[in-house]
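Researcher: Good morning. I'm working through a list of sequences from a screen, and I'd like to move beyond sequence-only analysis. For each chain I'm collecting a predicted structure so we can compare shapes side by side. This is the next one on the list. No need for commentary yet; just the structure.
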Amino acid sequence: MLAGAAQVLESDPEEAGRQAEQLLSIAPGQQHALQLLVDARRAEGDLKGARTRLEAMAAELPDVAAVHCELGLLQMEAGDLRAAIASLSRVVELEPRHPRAWRALADARAQTGDTAGAAQAYAEQFASSITDLKVLEQVGALERDQLEVADNVLREFLNVFSTDLTALQMLGKMHMRATQFESAEGVFMHALEIAPSFQMARLELISALHQQLRPEDENRQLDIILQEDPDNPEYRALKALALTASGNIEEATSYCEDMLRAQPERHSFWLAYAHALRVAGRENECIAAFRKAIELHPGVGEAWWGLSNLKTFRFDASDVRAMRAELARRDLTDQNRQFLHFALGKALEDNQEYEESFALYSRGNALIRAANPYDIADVVENVSREKRRFTPEFFSANVELGCASAAPIFILGLPRSGSTLVEQILASHSMVEGGGELPSLIALIRRLESSKGEEDSAEDAAALFRDESLKALGEEYLERSRHGRKLSRPHFTDKMPSNFHHLGFICAILPNARIIDARRHPVACCFSNFKQIFPHLQGPSYHLSDIGRYYRAYVELLAYFDRLLPGRVHRVTYEDLVREPEREVRRLLDYCDLPFEDTCLRFYETDRGIRTISSAQVRRPLYKDSVSQWRNYEPWLGPLKAALGTVLDNYPAVPDEF
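Model: Good morning. Structure tokens for this chain:
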């Protein structure tokens, strides 16, 4: 009967209402019949009559939640918020896990200015929503290649229920899974506007900011969450890590020491302290802190990896036995197993047990890649797109229209290419501040591309910059970079590795910026990446063929700009820098229009916080040990060499002295 009534609703609402009444006489309070009754009266233009009927039913059936719910929704529609709140409160009194009623009650309270009551109701709605719409459960389980479908389903649902916290949480998490961190940030911010006390959304927001390398914004959100729960150990550890990432090293170490005085038994606090000490260059204390974390929790892979990642540290035989024992445990988490594979791989490399070392690196990489899928073809296609987008015609038409500032010095290069060394040399100059890996350019490009409709060609620079001033974009980059600058020096470095994808953009908006290409032997660089766990886990370094293709795409793009804008990019080859440091440093400073300073040759004496994984290595004089280390693994590097192809053939021969 109900299905038949629903079918005649559009053509004959009066008949649909009659059938709904008939069903309600048989099953008082039947939810779908109540909804049909209201819809029928609405179609007839008689909402007042529908309300009168529901009020009568509520009096007759005071303990039937469905009646009070439909009445409350109708009262909200009529603008009678006080009555709606009373009806909906009765619903949740009868059925405490009624998400639809909690959501409507929260909306009604918010409209009356009762923000505290609204926040409480939104929290209850979130806790109850798992039964609200079964499709949401299915949507949340969709695979990565179905995320577009899932996104559409959730957005359709949010078009109707715009304040549903469960749907917002799922949408934000899907954006995180798709590495669309800025979109995820917007979703979680919207959820927090609805319910500021929704801590789960704030933690997800912090994660999204962390992935975007925005520690200052992380700190602000952590301060909010710590106000509500100041002794929460998870939040305190996150705060310590965010302080370290933002370059506030003294504050970070002091904060960690306060944590440890209060709770010295927490291994997560010792881990956070070790990371701060590493950045501060306090290596012996850093080792002791990692050791303490291991003493408290022997299976914490991150601490073992932290020790191996100091590069200058060497494990002893008891450490190797301990790591093997932990890897043999069946209850070890995948994350701890990943870290331990790499740490033990490094220990065996130092012991010259290269075959097993390579097997361990390979297992660790396979675990990380399985948990963080990507398509290397997409990465390579981005390079081709940049070549199509930035043409000679574009630069001829827009020469010198960007911001005239010569303050930025961009250091491009794959991780493990010597880029941190180049930055440390420059940061040792009195006129240069080492900015580290700044997210400013990426954030600017995302802002620009998100403002363009699909009608704007992604392969047309003129379309990308339509309605935008190149000068203003350059100034916007400088403003976005301001938070990463602590000193008032004329120049600053930006060594975000992914900036090479946007070389044309840099040249367009900052025509006077210096751009340095840090190069290292292709196999040495790529295999060094393969042996490394990066903080955010994304990227093509966890498969030998993929990192080879990535390196090849990098070389292809830089070669294109060498032809397009000759002399615009200065190349520093790691092997040349190690062999003839003074000559290469003088060439580098001349290119940057900086006078020679002897401190640049003594870069290892420069006292500054270094947050990248090469921090320990650039605090010692230049050494040749690592130039040809990869040759110890040559029997297993065939896939990498094949992927590099002619790039490997064309790289200058490494001198015999290495």
